[in-house]
Amino acid sequence: xxxxxxxxxxxxxxxxxxxxxxxxxxxxxxxxxxxxxxxxxxxxxxxxxxxxxxxxxxxxxxxxxxxxxxxxxxxxxxxxxxxxxxxxxxxxxxxxxxxxxxxxxxxxxxxxxxxxxxxxxxxxxxxxxxxxxxxx
Amino acid sequence: xxxxxxxxxxxxxxxxxxxxxxxxxxxxxxxxxxxxxxxxxxxxxxxxxxxxxxxxxxxxxxxxxxxxxxxxxxxxxxxxxxxxxxxxxxxxxxxxxxxxxxxxxxxxxxxxxxxxxxxxxxxxxxxxxxxx
Lengths: 136, 132
Hints:
A: 5 strands; 35% helix
């Protein structure tokens, strides 16, 4: 059964979000290496939702984590204006950070630390970002 | 996150930030503020001791990059074009800001972000101080 966390979209809650992924991953017997990578990707995703999605307005993030076969699946749902982060182009690491597109490095991390990232707008109109990471 | 500071002596005076805790979007500003205060007080060489940092996000990387930019502006050694060319060729290494003792995951993030292309990383604090 999937584990769920519903939490206010505030930066002070990032630590609790990371702990939720850690605790759930440990209970699913994920390796430390796989979990560290997934924690990174989820934290970067939640940060982008809080900063670039809600932009300081109140809102919530619903996080669901489950094991499908040998793949850890994390879904992050929010009600910020619809935006598909998977369309952010790859970032050029040789360009100085202050010149890079805002949020680009976070998306770069998400891509690097997961096996698959997909986005959809749910029937209710929410953003849903799905991160997949193989246990092996 | 908590930061304690110690003054060490390499070939130049080096300010070491011993950071304890996670550096994320919620805490990275603390690091920037501490560095800004140190730079305003005259520090020109800073070493970040990451031994007790379990997690760093892209916002922590951004904070480190901002500190590098502040320090570099005080150094009239190279202009922006020279720096950009050095970054693209991978030959540029900063002399004003260095990193020490990252965990395996933190080192991975430093690598994935590309910040290790221009910041030196040491596994030994004394060697890191001596390298300035």
